[in-house]
Design goal:
mainly alpha; 16 helices
Length: 384
């Protein structure tokens, strides 16, 4: 029981820190957009998704890396990178320093996030994993929520105070050092043990599209609020915290939710995002904003937990880190190109690159993706 409690707390704190990847710089993105307006909105939005570039590299090599050293050592390094790179812009207003720190922090997220599912697979029996996957989402939700709320409040003293919220990563590092059991490197990297399958590749492709469209919320909500409702960054922090709260609630009840929805859990999570964007488009004022925030939080939480659960039971235990790495890499490509793709799509389809037009594109995209996934699941292509 003591070992299980230590594993649970470790899983929570690892996810707690990786939740900051969702926070990014979203609460201050509107302010940063005005401060660095000479670089253009698309470039400033890219700062939020830039970590995906090295996140892909970290996720790509993490499966191989687990055969050379323990998961605990890799996680410790990743959390330190997140902490140091996260707070670095606090000390300078340089756009180039901010750009570099946002780039490098991605490697920390890239080697940390996929390993949490691998830790769960190593140390938790299959029948109990859904609860731990839910705990992972809860940790991410709380990390994102605190990142948004505390970051929004800190930025009230000056936008650069927001970066101090990345001290969370050091708290998680301490928890991992004292609580996470040490494990040996993976015994081998034989092809038959590390082999992936259609479930991994299908969910990875879905992750690409989901990440592409879900980022329309995080990269535009701050700009939308500051242009249409209020310039108060605290409000932006509260709005994005609502997103995290609902993600947290979905994580807490994920075992029950997945038990009810079963193989349709991931498809339903995609439709939730489409509904959220629809609320933002057709319900005026803050009510629509809060509904969109809640639905996007529900979508992200259930999508990630559902995909991780499917992957963990569809490949050999030795291949879970590799499979989650591939899943993360493909999803990260969607996140990396999201600002440019969504901006161009909004311009081509609706004639102008605005936050509202990007929300239109995201709503349509999520609905189409949900239909595709529901059809695929109904034919049992993505189910074990």
């Amino acid at each position: 029981m003591l070992k299980k409690n230590k594993v649970a707390v470790s899983v929570f704190f690892i996810a707690f820190a990786t939740g900051l990847n969702i926070t990014g710089i979203s609460p201050i993105l509107g302010v940063v957009n005005e401060k660095y307006q000479q670089y253009g909105t698309s470039v400033v939005q890219l700062l939020h998704t830039l970590p995906y570039l090295l996140l892909m590299l970290g996720s790509l090599i993490v499966g191989w890396w687990t055969t050379k050293t323990s998961k605990k050592k890799i996680l410790s390094l990743g959390l330190l990178i997140i902490g140091f790179c996260g707070i670095l812009p606090f000390f300078s207003d340089s756009f180039y320093l901010l750009f570099l720190s946002r780039l490098l922090i991605g490697f920390g997220f890239g080697i940390s996030s996929p390993l949490n599912a691998a830790v769960i697979t190593d140390l938790v029996e299959e029948e109990n994993r859904a609860g731990y996957m839910g705990l992972h989402v809860v940790g991410m939700g709380i990390g994102t929520m605190i990142g948004n709320l505390a970051g929004g409040m800190l930025s009230g003293f000056g936008y650069h105070f927001f970066y101090l919220v990345y001290m969370i990563a050091f708290i998680s590092w301490i928890a991992v050092q004292f609580l996470l059991p040490e494990t040996l490197p993976a015994a081998s990297e034989k092809a038959d043990e590390m082999k992936l399958n259609a479930v991994v590749y299908g969910l990875s492709a879905a992750s690409f599209a989901h990440t592409l469209f879900i980022n329309a919320y995080s990269t535009n909500i701050g700009i939308y609020l500051i242009q249409n409702i209020t310039k108060d960054t605290t409000v932006t922090g509260i709005v994005t915290a609502v997103n995290a709260i609902f993600a947290l609630l979905m994580g807490a009840f994920f075992a029950k939710i997945s038990g009810i929805l079963k193989r349709y859990t991931v498809a339903v999570s995609v439709f939730a995002a489409a509904a959220g964007y629809g609320a933002l488009l057709f319900i005026p004022g803050m009510i629509g904003v809060y509904l969109a925030s809640a639905c996007c939080g529900i979508s992200l939480s259930c999508f990630m937990a559902g995909c991780s659960m499917q992957i963990s039971v569809s490949v050999e235990p030795e291949a879970v880190a590799k499979a989650n790495g591939i899943f993360s890499v493909v999803g990260s490509i969607g996140g990396l190109i999201a600002p440019v793709f969504m901006g161009n799509a909004a311009s081509v389809v609706f004639g102008e690159n605005t936050a509202m037009n990007q929300f239109h594109v995201a709503c349509i995209g999520m609905f189409v993706l949900g239909v595709i996934m529901a059809l695929a699941v109904s034919r049992r292509r993505w189910s074990k």
